Amino acid sequence: MKASTLRRVLNWWPPFLFAGVRVLRLDDDYRHARVRLKLAWYNRNYVRTHFGGSLFSMTDPFWMIMTLKSLGDDYIVWDQAGEIRFVSPGREDVFAEFHVEEAVLDEVRAATANGEKCLRWFETDVRTASGELVASVRKQLYVRRKKGR
Fold it and tell me: Could you tell me the pTM of the whole model?
């Protein structure tokens, strides 16, 4: 699937659409993405800041999808684990950026070359437009070459 098509699909995907998540950018080579979470009445918590589940979900699929697309069809890529650390209250729209570096892909390819699995952590900061850190999210991916490839 072309990145532009996936971006449109994700923007209409009900969990993102109804949480206020919007994929602003997804590069054609799947190496960079930018996502916004709008603060609205329907995604605020009791104290009128971003609901933590929405902060986590805005980052959820990107490392897995981008790594899978960057490595190609010879690999299995799954989310293995995830964690979030809340740093400051989000009282305005927030953004997350994802960059898949070639050095990381080379590291994963080397670790899986003999059919072994690779568990690799990826980190994303969720920030306001002015750069204030709201949350840090970590996702661990399970990567393995498909058998016979």
Answer: 0.92
